[in-house]
Amino acid sequence: MKIIEFYKLQASGNDFILIDNRKLKITSGRLKAIARNYCRRKLSIGADGLLVIEPSKKALFKMRIFNVDGSEAQMCGNGARCSAFWYALKGKPAKNIRFETKAGIIESRVGQESVTIKLSDPKNIRLQMPINVLGRKIKVDFINSGVPHAVIFVEGLAKIKVEAIGRAVRFHKSFKPSGTNVDFVELLSAETIALRTYERGVEAETLACGTGSVAAAIISVAKLKLNSRKINVLTRGGEILKVYFDKQGQKFTKVWLEGKANLVYKGGIYV
Question: Can you tell me the mean pLDDT for 87-102?
Answer without folding.
Answer: 85
